[in-house]
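Honest question from a wet-lab person: if I give you the sequences of every part of a complex, can you actually get the arrangement of the whole thing, not just the pieces? Trying it with mine:
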Amino acid sequence: MHRVKQLYEWLDNRTGVRDHIREVLFENVPGGSRWRYVWGSTLTFALMIQFITGIFLWMGYAPSGQTAWESVYYINYQMTGGHFLRGLHHWTAQVMTVLLVFHLMQVIIDGAYKAPREVNFWFGVILLKLTLALSLTGYLLPWDQKGFWATKVATDIMGGTPIIGEQLKLLVLGGADYGHHTLTRFFALHAGILPVSVIALTVGHIYLFRRHGITPKKPLKGSDEFFWPEQVLKDAVACLAVLVTVLVLHFSFDGAHLDAPADPSTNYPARPDWYFLFLFQFLKYFPGHWEVLGAIVLPSIAMTLIFLMPIIGRSEKGHKFNLGLLFGILVFAGILTYVAVNQDRNNPTYLASKAQAQREAKIIKEMAANGIPPEGALALLQGPKLFAQHCASCHTYGGENGLGNKVTDQSAPDLKGFASRKYLTELLHPKRFNSPEFFGNTAHAKKSKMQGFLEDEFDGIDDDEALRNEMNQIIKALSAEAKLPSQTKMDLNDKADIQAGYELFEEIGCVDCHALGDWNADEYSAPDLTGYGSRGWLMGIVDNPAHERFYGSKNDRMPAFGKDEKLTRKQMEQIVDWLRGQ
Amino acid sequence: MSTEDNFSDQESQPEQPDRRGFIRGASCFIGAAVGAVPMTAGIRVLIDPIVRKNSESEKAEFIRLAELTELQDGEPMKFAIVENKSDKWSRYTDVPVGAVYLLKRDEKVIAYNTVCPHLGCFVDYRKSENDFFCPCHDSQFNLDGKLTKGVSPRPMDELVVEIRNGVEVWVKFERFKSNTKEKIVI
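Yes, you can. This is the full assembly:
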């Protein structure tokens, strides 16, 4: 203890730190400490959380069209503690908005904005706007559907500003379209310009607050106290309550949401974050070119009136006007928010798009776990999207259309896990081959010799271990043809079984119809199984299933996507790679 | 502004010392606790590279680099190692991840990692001197990989070579810890 004191003395001697600490701690609180004075401290605390968590998030974030979503995904789902860190940042931002409103209410109700505190009030209003700007810019950074579409609306509104709108929009977006520079600019704003401005103004705000002191709520509750320790404790408890609220929100909502990557080709119901919903709703009442009135003119008038509050509030009447204005705005915003939420809740189109977006988000996150190609995560989603659009009218993917929607009228085989060992174990079961999940609803169900063959050779496979083993070896051999990335290790380890499988393929007579190794059109009547399920094989069958190598004249309804130019080669590759789990 | 000379005394308000002590302690404790939460959350993510267990540390595999006929006797030639690579969220196919020198001598092939064992610079082959030269701290190695001059703690890192089917040169590409006397695979 003695040493600590010595060190403190040494430091004070060199810096004069003691006076500063005293000045802070022994600030006079007229009438004693009160709970209503805590809001400024809670905001400072929330700001501190945002700075700390923000800097750590920064270490993992990469702003660009192909890396923003991807890096946020990686922070959120792969990094130790990333989910919590991002949740903390996200939910503190939400809570901060509420705290700003409380702080503003307290300042106006207590008359703390009046002379001589006008300048400090203006600092506060600018800080409020800066914080909202931080929310707006932060919303875009994950570059997911939600942020992308909401920001698009916000920047389009900005583009509607009279005279300078178009130039302003170009400046903010970094070009005519949304892309790399939109992200770098928003990030520079969010992590550079805005935080530095907030720090500068907060320092000024606190300095001016100290200069004029607390505006005591009359009548005074008791005798004067120092800031330390009574008010400090109240402030600390309030900060604790803020933190607990943030934690409760984080755990109830399972962290911060991340939608599917920004995709200009997919419909998405754009909505701003909840605290801007009232402005969003407000715009619904301004048709066409009147939009500028609701988006810019009226909000500017309201903002100007708030700015002028210290002048207006010089008289008692003015103060009452200010109170009325504040509560008017709050009630108005509250009602509009309620209407907006209520309209969405009863809008089936909105709910359906929202649910679809959530399904897509889930799918893309599962796919991203295996690594994302350099083109970005959006490219990963093209496979299931194209499947849903072009294949899912007959085929299914795990009973769904590839994008998570259940399919009930399936008429061609399910393709989830195609050519994998698990898939073939199901397909080549005498009782399943002709089930609706595979060939049951196709023309092959009636005419194919395959069902008869399976019944002859593998009847009772479930109870006969020797039969099961034989089938397993054939399956391993066939599945190895696919060279699936998920089975590389297994294929390497089971070389003996695979070899045995090849031999059985010949022995039991598969080879009477199917080729495995040396296909020619004259000898084989059924699809060639050389390279079955491989990228090349799948590309071939998608290109033209009626080719002699596949179904030939027996092809049942499947279009020749490549040959008839229904899909580009790139699109076919995207579907095939997705099916193969690549 | 009124200040007191001593933190602990505030004579104007006679209070039980217990209560004041409690308030002071509670203020400090809560203040520290609420500050620690975001800090801890951040540091947990920061140390992710240390605590992360590599799910499967990738074993080096042999890569086919050249045919014997492409190599000139007694003169090292540089070959890029092109592999699939994953980097955080990204996975890349066929990107350069390093390079090796192949040196043919009497039908035998020696492979060196081009990375200097000292501090990881890219070692050049100097045709005029017929040696390997590190441009960073001037280590010189002869074609046997031995240090002839300079500060490197060990000779150039030799890699395992296999000649398959009589002509194909396959190399097991490995990386080694820098600046240690022993060759330690990383």
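Two things worth pointing out. Chain B has two domains: 1-52, 62-172. The helical segments of chain B are 17-46, 48-51.
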